[in-house]
Amino acid sequence: MTSITDTIARALSGFRSTPMSRAFGSWLGKIAGGFLALLVLTAIFAPWITPFDYTAQDLTNGNAPPGWPHLLGTDQFGRDVLSRVIYGARTSLSVSATAIAISITVGMTLGAAAGYFGGFFERAVMTVVDLTWSFPDILIALIFVAIIGPGLTSTTFAIAIAYLAQFTRLTRAQIVRLKQETFIEVTINLGAKPHHILLKHLLPNAIAPVIVVGMLAIGDGIVLEATLGFFGLGAQPPTPSWGAMMASGTAKLFLSPWVIISPGVVVAVTVIAVNLFGDELIRALDIRDRIRDS
Amino acid sequence: MLEVRDLEVAFGQIAPLCGVSFALEKGETLGIVGESGSGKSLTAMSVMGLLPLSGGRITAGSIIFDGQELTKLPEAAYRKLRGGRLGLITQNPMTSLDPLQKIGPQVDAVARLHLGITGQQARARTIEILGTLRIPEPALICDRYPHQMSGGMKQRIVIAGALAANPDLLVADEPTTALDVTVQAQIIRLLDDLVKERALSLVLITHDMSVVAQTCDKVVVMYAGRAIEQGPVEAIFAEPQHPYTQALIGCIPKGLSEDEHLVGIPGTVPTVMNYPKGCPFHPRCIRAEDICTKTSPSLLPRGDGAVSCHFPGAAP
Question: Which CATH class is domain B2-307?
Answer without folding.
Answer: alpha beta
